[in-house]
Amino acid sequence: MSEIEAERIRVLADRPANEKGTYVLYLLQQANRSSFNPALEYAIAEANRLGLPIVACFGLLDGSDGFPEANERHYAFLLQGLSDAAAGLAKRRIGFVMRKCSPAEIAIDLAKHAAILVLDRGYLAIQKRWYEEILKAVSTRVVQVEGDVVVPLETASDHHEFAARTLRPKIGKRLDEFLQPLAAVKPKHDAAALGLKSQLDISDPDKVLAGMTLDRSVPPVKRFRGGETEARRRLKAFLAGPFADYGEVRGKPEAGAASHMSPYLHFGQISPVEIALVVRAAAKGGEDDKSAYVEEVVVRRELAMNHVFYTDGYDAYDRAIPEWARKALAEHAKDERPQLYSDDELVEGRTHDRYWNAAMAEMRETGFMHNHLRMYWGKKILEWSRSPKEGFERTLRINNRFFLDGRDPNSFTNVGWVYGLHDRPWGRRKVFGTVRYQGDNTLKKFDADAYVRTVEKLCAAERQE
Fold first, then answer.
1. Given CA atoms 86, 92, 93, 95 in this order, what sign does their dihedral have?
2. Helices and strands, number each (H, E), in the chain
3. Among 198-212, 234-248, 298-312, 317-331, where is mean pLDDT lowest?
4. Together in a domain, 137 and 156
5. Between 310 and which of 160, 161, 173, 317 could a Cys-Cys bridge form, CB atoms 3.0 to 4.6 Å apart?
6. Mean per-residue pLDDT over the chain, rounded
7. Is 402 found in the same domain as 453?
8. Quick check: is 213 in a domain?
9. Taxonomically, which superkingdom (predicted)?
10. Is 108 buried (19+), middle (13-18) or exposed (0-12) by CB count in 10 A?
11. β-bridge mates for residue 142, sequence order
């Protein structure tokens, strides 16, 4: 088992540990899991060194201060995961405090009595603001440990990458160095003696959800349940079944060959390092299958992290989309659109395209859509919108509303790709200019009718009492 790589660890406030501190505090924010969590293991090791117990905390945004664009679907999955994580922490004799407030607020308050504050790391603007707020307010030592990527972000690249092909060799050089097992550190001191109380009893996530003030227009789904336990169960089932032919069928939505790890990765309920290690060691699947999967979970995913981290305004059309693509789309902005649909028509799947409607139904009803269809889905919204900017904004809006893994670096990057991000100019055509187009030929690469039937069954299962 390996130690935590030094490049994952960043000292944000280089101060001595608070000698009056009665525990080491870990802000459970991005990595919502009790195991294979570098930040947590670092915090445990520091607590053992100082002869202190460890306390993990979580701030639950609620009401008007809720996480932007999050709704009941997202919160249900999050709370299920936190319930699982809290149980895992308790087994390890780690305290857990959860309150209705921002992550920064709970960290600042509990850090008053902490010897050291340990943070994990996310890359979105709101997460950066939390870290800045914490650093301005706390007086103890603050250390951040990166556990949401395989190769630490700045280690992989110090600038915004043009495409996967420019990032891939940089990650490849360091991949084996960071793709290592993580030793589980046993806490030497039980946090129960501290007597800290949590404002919320997360052992009943449904009760916590019912007590929240939030957008309930998008209900929870039955297809996915949150938590690290469920994430590992799904991964095991995937590797024992459809993964055997992954390289061949991964582009066929009807084949059911997806691992469905993206929601769990989004909420930090499983480590990308753990996934890649398990995939590499899988009994089934050839080297091509394993390489194809690792490409997706490492290179493609970390390209998205690179994009949002190095792009101010990654959610804005004028700042997220490269100049060449905006110019190409602007030159054809007045082209006649074959169809124009309202937001309601799109969300309800009332277009002329039954295959697009099926993809929208899968997203709307189950919170998921196969990657192959996500691209087709997005390109059609561009084609059916009055302007490229309107298309970008509504694509991102619908994406973030219904996908369980919406509001994620991958979401912002995937929507950007529809409009030319991380791509190159193609043959010129109406509406798209030289931005890549996807049409009916995309549907010929798999059994589209079988996919429609699959979606009908999935949606029927969601409607069952």
1. negative
2. 22, 6
3. 234-248
4. no
5. 160
6. 96
7. yes
8. no
9. Bacteria
10. buried
11. 13, 117
* 59 in any annotated domain: yes
pLDDT value of residue 2: 54
Query: Does residue 436 lie in a domain region?
Result: yes
Q: What percent of the chain has pLDDT over 90?
A: 91
| Cα–Cα dist 121/30, whole Å | 6
Span 28-76, pLDDT tens digits: 999 999 999 999 999 999 999 999 999 999 999 998 888 999 999 999 9
Both 154 and 299 in a single domain? yes
Number of structural domains (the chain) is: 3
CA 438 to chain centre: 26
Query: Alpha-carbon distance 63 to 81, whole Å?
Result: 20
Spatial separation of the C-alpha atoms in residues 86 and 88, rounded to whole Å = 5
- Whether residue 140 is found in the same domain as residue 153: no
Domain residue limits at 155:
149-186+227-310
Compute the average pLDDT of residues 426-450: 95
Are residues 154 and 302 located together in one domain of the fold? Answer: yes
What CATH number is given to the structural domain containing 131? Answer: 3.40.50.620
Q: Do 167 and 302 reside in the same domain of the chain?
A: yes
Tell me, yes or no, whether 160 and 278 share the same domain.
yes
Question: Using CA atoms, how far apart are residues 362 and 379, in angstroms rounded to an integer?
Answer: 17
Name residues whose C-beta falls within 8 Å of residue 177's C-beta, 6 or more positions apart in sequence. Answer: 5
CATH of the domain at 435: 1.10.579.10
pLDDT digits (tens, 9 = 90+) for 125-134: 999 999 999 9
Fill in the DSSP letter of residue 182. Answer: B
Same domain, 306 and 418: no
Domain boundary among 310, 345, 376: 310
Q: Which of 310, 326, 343 lies at the terminal end of a domain, its last residue?
A: 310
Q: Which residues on adjacent β-strands are paired with residue 58?
A: 98
CA 450/CA 465 separation, integer angstroms: 25
Does the pTM surpass 0.90? The reply is yes
Q: Do the domain assignments include residue 191? A: no
Q: Which of 366, 373, 438, 363 is nearest to 398 (CA)?
A: 363
Q: β-strands 9-13, 141-145: how paired?
A: antiparallel
Write out the DSSP string of 63-76.
GGGSPTT--HHHHH
CA 9, 13, 17, 18: dihedral to nearest 10 degrees?
-140
What is the average per-residue pLDDT within 2-22?
Answer: 94
